[in-house]
Amino acid sequence: MEYQYGDTGGVEGLGVGYIIVMLLIAVFFIACYWRIFTKAGQPGWAAIIPFYNIYVMLTIVGRPGWWLILMLIPCVNIVVGILVYLDLARVFGKGTGFAIGLILLTPIFIPILAFGDAEYIG
Q1: I need a labelling partner for 78 at 20 to 30 A (CA). Which of 8, 9, 38, 107 fits?
Q2: Domain carrying residue 70
Q3: Is the torsion defined by CA of 45, 48, 51, 57 positive or negative?
Q4: Could you give the dihedral angle defined by the CA atoms of residues 37, 40, 42 and 43, in that order, rounded to the nearest 10 degrees?
């Protein structure tokens, strides 16, 4: 078998598969945040609007809206994100252990928060 110019050996399908998997993951997490927002009495559609979703999350956890600016500063955003997840666990009646789970294992604990029995306390 001889290599021909332009022959990719069928690997182009891997790129399409990767895109499909990433889109499915994105849709899943949009659904998770949509559910968290509606549990907190906010509009669920806010989960799909860039920057506004961060503002809504800050509102849910009781932080001022100007913290959105802090989320745009490299390294500072990590600290602010940790504080937001700590507060998110608190406003849903979860403890420090759950907050650490949100920080370290976000892909596992966000769906638990969204689809579990946690209720928004405020």
Answers
A1: 38
A2: 12-115
A3: positive
A4: 40
Give domain status of residue 3, yes or no. no
H-helix or E-strand spanning residue 43: none
Q: Which amino acid is at 85?
A: Y
Task: List Cα–Cα distances, 33 to 2, 7, 60, in angstroms.
Answer: 51, 42, 12
Q: Identify whether 79 is part of a domain.
A: yes
Name the 3-class secondary structure at 74: coil
- 54 touches 71 (CB < 8 A): yes
Write the CB contacts of 96 (distance below 8 Å, at least 6 apart in sequence).
86, 89
pLDDT digits (tens, 9 = 90+) for 67-82: 999 999 999 999 999 9
120 belongs to a structural domain: no
pLDDT (tens digit per residue) in 14-67:
778 888 999 999 999 999 999 999 999 999 999 999 999 999 999 999 999 999
Owner of token pair 């809504």: 56
Query: What is the rounded CA–CA span in Å between residue 117 and residue 121?
Result: 12
Q: Is residue 84 part of a domain?
A: yes
